[in-house]
Design a protein that fits this description.
By secondary structure, this protein is an all-alpha fold. The protein is about 65% helix and about 0% strand.
Length: about 300
Amino acid sequence: MSKFYLPSSTPASTTSPSPLQSPTSLITPTAVSNLRHLPTASHNNTYYDSSPPSPSSDRYDEDDLPYPTPLPRSAFLDPAFTPETYLSTLRNRHQTLEDLRTELRDRVRDLGKELFDLVNGEYEDLMGVGMMLSGGEEKVEGVRVGVLGFGREVEGLRGVVNGRKEEVGRLLGERRRVRGEVAVGRRLLEVEERVGELERRLGIRATEEGEEDEEEEEGEGEDDGLGRLRGNVRLFGQMRGLMESVGEHPFFEAQVRRIKMIRDALLLDLGAALRTARKDEGQKTTVLEVIRMYRDIGEAAEAVRVLKSK
């Protein structure tokens, strides 16, 4: 460390320069050098430190340089690890490429050493397993025979299960068929009921004593002939709907004559009601209702024919 000494402000000698000497000759190089380091305020015997700070000074105690941390081992355990992707994540790492290469080489060397130590540590166990496996042909053969026997039993059970499955399928099909026949039988019975009731209401079949009582009860609910005709049309429509849901059946072929008689009688009643309503101009609503009855039983063309006739 270089130090500078300031001379006293009082001159060391009061002797004035000789008139023959120039005033500048009294200024020596040493004095000029001392004047360069003079402070703004004059103090006696003051020293100044102009050298740079040493590394051991307090200004270097805090080191905030971004030193790189060791590469984490977990980063290399990712199944989808690729060198390009991993290196792209190190863009903010303050480390030279040579230092990074050196660190990776050290990591590979450490891993090789760990693998070597692991194999040596487990070598005795591996040898023991190999010795235990030798001479186990008899056990393997016994297991193979047991597996073959089990396979035969499974095949036998599979045949039994397949047979039961076919039998159950056949029985289920039989049950569905019986249920279908029962449903058809119920519809046939309903058709028979509708046919018999229409024959009774239309006067085609003779009415017995019990049926007369039922007819009287129904007559109480139907005040006029139009209401009774409306009930006959409803029954005929229900009968036709049941027949269409069943389709072709020998029972319907046997009932063709009865159904034709019911249709003819119903058309006669509808025609008579339509002609009667036409004669009275105040019964236009009745005319429309009778025409709607024709349409409900699928005989709209017959209504047109009656309207055109005189």
